[in-house]
Write a structure and sequence with these properties.
413 residues, 30% strand, five-stranded mixed beta barrel, Lycopene cyclase, seven-stranded mixed β-sheet, 16 strands
């Protein structure tokens, strides 16, 4: 006998979103499902506060909890040449995880969703059907929960891949002594930073007001840095590149997002399904996760409401994943200059089309048009070699803080 109909492991963006969508009154006309949400106790296994960024039109589902949004985006080349675009009708949006958790937590408390804290060690199928979650609660006592369906958002183990880069970053929330920011423009990529020997680096600025902003240093490279190295890079970017003058750091965030063409399973058992980054929501070429996690959890909730097996399409299409694999390989081999590549795309492709492309929302002919705006010969060479490249396990080097989110990412930034 099952304790609940659905158990969700992990109360990040994907876990909270799925729990809310299943328990919301509009989730479907079928029988109401009982839901349990299991989160890690306070400590190293629970992610610290972070930011999630995405783009959509105004009037979105989470507009009431946005920290800020922008209708103009800027990419700056290494020589200081800036490309500023308006992706209308899309806006670039930022949510603080604390605000999202408070909003969703309030809704879940009204819906009857059961909340537990435990360190989960195992999620598995049961012989007679359904799934079991096992672990230890905050006191060390054994925790066990059975359900008809289980959804696991714990970070996936690295899989065999042809290419794996890491998007790693550290960001400061700063307050300057004098107005220094144009709060109508988000700087997605500022390449006026020293570039690593392999990969690329850029600054990222999300203004929250004329004197407040999230300022980040981000790298796409094979290995992470130590905190001291991020701090030096951030200090250089804030003081020497941006010229902020006197400022105060009010908070910081740091994270690592795998950018890989490894295959992620859509199913971990007859009744066990990965969601969020574990379910492939992270776009390999950018690191953005939040929007895809919303689409994925919406589809899962809809399947459950209709009484169907919740095996839904992957968050990103096979065509999108193939294009990501090509770009990752081209960047990793140095065949394309990352700064020139991204600056050129924003300069030559209509902004709303480019953002839809980065979110996997373009048609094939639009993808072809965008592809013609890239370095065609090195990209074609990469397309031809991908089928013969072996997939190998990746062991990332270095160390960093817990995975976080924004920037060209999750992001989840």
């Amino acid at each position: 006998m099952h304790d609940v109909d659905v158990v969700i492991v992990g109360a990040g963006a994907a876990g909270l979103s799925l729990a809310h969508r299943i328990t919301a009154p509009q989730a479907g006309a079928g029988p109401r499902l009982s839901v349990a949400l299991v989160d890690a106790p306070a400590g190293p296994l629970r992610p610290p506060p972070r930011t999630w960024c995405f783009w959509e039109e105004a009037g979105g589902e989470y507009d009431d909890v946005l920290a800020a949004s922008w209708d103009r985006l800027r990419v700056t080349a290494p020589d200081g040449t800036a490309v500023t675009v308006r992706p209308a009708p899309l806006r670039y949006k930022m949510i603080r995880s604390t605000h999202f958790e408070e909003r969703t937590g309030t809704l879940l408390s009204r819906s009857g969703c059961l909340r537990y804290e435990a360190v989960v060690h195992r999620v598995r199928d049961l012989p007679g059907g359904g799934a079991e979650v096992r672990g230890r609660d905050g006191t060390g006592a054994e925790f066990r929960l059975r359900a008809r369906w289980a959804f696991d958002s714990r970070p996936p183990r690295p899989g065999a891949a042809r290419t794996t880069l890491l998007q790693h970053f550290r960001g400061w929330f700063v307050r300057t002594a004098r107005p220094r920011f144009d709060d109508g423009v988000a700087d997605l990529m500022d390449f006026r930073t020293p570039q690593p020997g392999r990969g690329l680096a850029f600054g990222y600025v999300l203004p929250l007001g004329p004197r407040e902003a999230l300022v980040e240093y981000t790298e796409f490279s094979p290995a992470v840095l130590g905190t001291a190295a991020y701090e030096r890079a951030l200090r250089h970017y804030a003081e020497d590149v941006l010229g902020l003058g006197p400022f105060r750091v009010t908070a910081a965030e740091q994270g690592v997002i795998p950018m890989t063409d490894a295959r992620l399973p859509r199913r971990a058992g007859r009744s066990v399904f990965p969601i969020g980054a574990a379910g492939g929501a992270t776009r390999p070429s950018t690191g953005y996760t939040f929007a895809a996690a919303q689409r994925h959890t919406r589809a899962v909730a809809d399947a459950l409401a209709r009484g169907r097996t919740p095996l839904v399409p992957a968050p990103h299409s096979p065509r999108s994943r193939f294009m990501d694999a090509v770009l990752l390989r081209a960047l990793d081999t140095g065949r394309v200059d990352g700064a020139a590549f991204f600056t050129g795309l924003f300069r030559e492709v209509p902004a709303h089309r480019l953002l839809r492309f980065l979110d996997g929302g373009t048609r094939w002919w639009e993808d072809v048009l965008i592809g013609l705006r890239t370095p065609v010969r090195p990209m074609l060479r990469t397309v031809l070699e991908l089928p013969v490249l072996p997939r190998r396990a990746h062991a990332p080097g270095g160390s960093a803080g817990p995975a976080g989110s924004p920037g060209p990412r999750q992001p989840d930034h």
